[in-house]
Design a protein that fits this description.
Helix content: 40-55%
Bound molecules: adenosine-5'-diphosphate, magnesium ion
Largest sheet: 5 strands, parallel
GO biological process, one term: sulfate assimilation
Keywords: ATP-binding, Kinase, Nucleotide-binding, Phosphoprotein, Transferase
CATH superfamily: P-loop containing nucleotide triphosphate hydrolases
Shape: globular
Number of domains: 1
Order of helices and strands: HEHEHHEHEHHEH
Function: Catalyzes the synthesis of activated sulfate.
Pathway: Sulfur metabolism; hydrogen sulfide biosynthesis; sulfite from sulfate: step 2/3
Radius of gyration: 18 Å
Distance between the termini: 38 Å
Oligomer: single chain
Catalytic activity: adenosine 5'-phosphosulfate + ATP = 3'-phosphoadenylyl sulfate + ADP + H(+)
Length: 206
């Protein structure tokens, strides 16, 4: 949804500032909130690496939440399809939810193909500087297609899925992501380590 399509805010709806705030909740949890935004082709490894990273963070005693693409389409975004408008609205809602979760002090991980630079920028712009950490799961299309964990590439090649990212719809690779993961060159454990290093460097975890 573009700004022009957005319903107007009611001027009588006023933000209420509460005493237990983001800083308090973050301190309580011993972490700086952040949103790790995994982006990449279907089958690139977003869910696999984000899930393994969340396990590791939980082991370290951190408070996290993983928003996974397919899962939100069962509830929060069940009314949305895959048109450009609906894809954008899907990401906008996820961004707003992730923002609430960072306000709750959480380290949020998200795993959405999110193929368009503009939609990723939209989420980046929702958050304070430095809280959006873009993780490009940079797996070549032929590798993703040979993995085909959900059989979707086979269907897309047979013309059964229209506008499938990488086949019949564009994927715009990030220009300056904070993290680049090469899943065809490194095992999941090493990729998790790479993410942990990035979180330390960003001051999210100690
Ligand atoms: N190094 C790796 N990192 C991540 N996934 C890998 C790796 N090597 C093989 N895979 C496999 O690739 C597939 C990635 O699927 P998935 O995580 O569901 O992708 P996505 O969420 O991006 O669609 C899984 O079957 C996973 O086991
Ligand atoms: Mg996935």
């Amino acid at each position: 949804m573009s700004a022009a399509d957005m319903p107007q805010k009611d001027e009588n709806v006023i933000w209420h500032k509460h005493a237990v705030d983001k800083a308090f909740r973050s301190e309580q949890k011993g972490q700086r909130p952040a949103l790790l935004w995994f982006t990449g082709l279907s089958g690139s490894g977003k869910s696999t690496v984000a899930g393994a990273l969340e396990n590791k963070l939980a082991e370290l005693g951190h408070h996290t939440y993983l928003l996974d693409g397919d899962n939100v389409r069962h509830g929060l975004c069940r009314d949305l399809g895959f048109s450009d408008h609906d894809r954008r609205e899907n990401i906008r809602r996820v961004g707003e939810v992730a923002k609430l979760m960072t306000d709750a002090g959480l380290i949020v991980l998200s795993a959405f193909i999110s193929p368009f630079r503009e939609e990723r920028q939209l989420v980046r712009d929702l958050l304070p500087e430095g809280e959006f950490i873009e993780v490009f799961v940079d797996t070549p299309l032929d590798v993703c297609e040979s993995r085909d964990p959900k059989g979707l590439y086979k269907k897309a090649r047979a013309g059964e899925i229209k506008a499938f990212t990488g086949i019949s719809s564009a994927y715009e690779a990030p220009k300056s992501p904070e993290v680049v993961l090469k899943t065809d060159q490194h095992a999941v454990d090493a990729l998790v380590e790479q993410c942990l290093e990035a979180l330390k460097k960003a001051g999210v975890i100690a």
